[in-house]
Amino acid sequence: MANATARVILDLPMEVFSALRRSPEEFGRELRLAGAIHWYTAGQVSMEKAAMIAGLNRRDFMRELSARKIDVFKVDPEDLERELARG
Known about the structure:
- This protein is mainly α.
- The chain has one domain (14-86).
- Helix content is 61%, strand content 0%.
- It has five helices and no strands.
- The N and C termini lie far apart (45 Å).
């Protein structure tokens, strides 16, 4: 069932959309992207999964991260030190 999907429904006051100057569809896309970025930067999901959550391919998700000045690739300082020590 690799192509199985689920639908999430949010009930929000219409004033939210006018205040943000977004249609419900635009808001939904932005919400998916914001969640994906949050979970990716928190280390809770891989880049591939985050891209899926955002409804993007991996390349476009990386572009979104870059546009928001978010590190595309995470480097663990301890891992980096071990790699540098190896020569």
